[in-house]
């Protein structure tokens, strides 16, 4: 039996300013750092010892994870960063103000772009060619993703890097993003495609999953 704790990063400057973010690499606000520290205290109170930390290649998640590891006095554990844990890529919506887009396209359309499983947002004309992804080959950076596409690029990471460690009995900590964690919750909780639009993950709110030795969920709890 092992435990997984998942955590969305603290408030970013884009969250504060209501901007579509996705793979844009934006920093935490002061409030976001406080949320990360508070989340760290909640995780510390569990007394859990983690075998590894998994996070994305985006600073809002990386910095949150550093703050949490310091709070739980486990800065020494292995830390893995993967583009597969990056936020869902918001395509051509990224950088745009959500309220302004809503005023332009209407509430129904923006809800579909933000919360449906299968709808792909308007795509970028070209990939950004961010050099941090060069080492993984040319097809890693998308021009935009549906939640379904993010789900399918996340799952290999779960299967190869997280699930085996849990099956070996080692607790795992995942610090990632709203939509990649919604995708993981969809997988773990068997949420139907149509129902995933109801699932929200708040900044800095740790969620704990306890598993049996075959990785069935025994208990889920928001800390
Ligand atoms: O990428 C973003 O803009 C946020 O991290 C998540 O935004 P959403 O709640 O609009 O999907």
TrEMBL record:
Residues reported in the UniProt entry to bind substrate = 8-15, 21-22, 60, 87-90, 98, 114-115
The function of this protein is: Catalyzes the interconversion of 2-phosphoglycerate and 3-phosphoglycerate.
Name the source's superkingdom.
Bacteria
Spell out the molecular function terms from Gene Ontology: phosphoglycerate mutase activity
User: Per its UniProt record, what Gene3D superfamilies does this chain match?
Assistant: Phosphoglycerate mutase-like
Q: Tell me if Isomerase is a UniProt keyword of this record.
A: yes
- Name-wise, this protein is 2,3-bisphosphoglycerate-dependent phosphoglycerate mutase
Gene coding for it = gpmA
- Look up the record and name the pathway of this protein: Carbohydrate degradation; glycolysis; pyruvate from D-glyceraldehyde 3-phosphate: step 3/5
Instruction: Tell me which UniProt keywords the record has, alphabetically.
Output: Gluconeogenesis, Glycolysis, Isomerase
EC number in record: 5.4.2.11
The similarity comment for this entry is: Belongs to the phosphoglycerate mutase family. BPG-dependent PGAM subfamily.
| Originating organism | Levilactobacillus suantsaiihabitans
- Top-level enzyme category: isomerase
Q: Name one GO biological process term.
A: gluconeogenesis
SUPFAM superfamilies in alphabetical order: Phosphoglycerate mutase-like
């Amino acid at each position: 039996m092992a435990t997984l704790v998942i955590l969305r990063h603290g408030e970013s400057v884009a969250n504060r300013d209501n901007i579509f973010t996705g793979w844009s690499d934006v920093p935490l606000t002061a409030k976001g750092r406080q949320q990360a520290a508070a989340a760290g205290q909640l995780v510390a109170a569990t007394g859990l010892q983690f075998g590894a930390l998994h996070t994305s290649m985006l600073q809002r998640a990386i910095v949150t994870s550093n703050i949490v590891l310091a709070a739980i006095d486990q800065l020494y554990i292995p830390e893995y960063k993967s583009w597969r844990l990056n936020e869902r890529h918001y395509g051509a919506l990224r950088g745009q103000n959500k309220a302004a887009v809503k005023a332009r396209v209407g509430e129904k359309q923006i809800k579909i772009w933000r919360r449906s499983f299968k709808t792909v947002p308007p795509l970028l004309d070209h990939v950004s060619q961010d050099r941090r992804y060069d080492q993984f080959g040319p097809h890693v950076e998308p021009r935009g993703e549906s939640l379904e596409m993010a789900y399918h690029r996340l799952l290999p990471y779960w299967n190869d890097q997280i699930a085996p460690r849990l099956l070996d009995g080692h607790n795992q900590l995942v610090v990632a993003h709203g939509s990649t964690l919604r995708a993981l919750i969809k997988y773990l909780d068997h949420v139907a495609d149509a129902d995933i639009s109801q699932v929200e993950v708040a900044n800095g709110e740790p969620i704990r999953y306890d598993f049996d030795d075959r990785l069935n969920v025994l208990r889920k709890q928001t800390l």
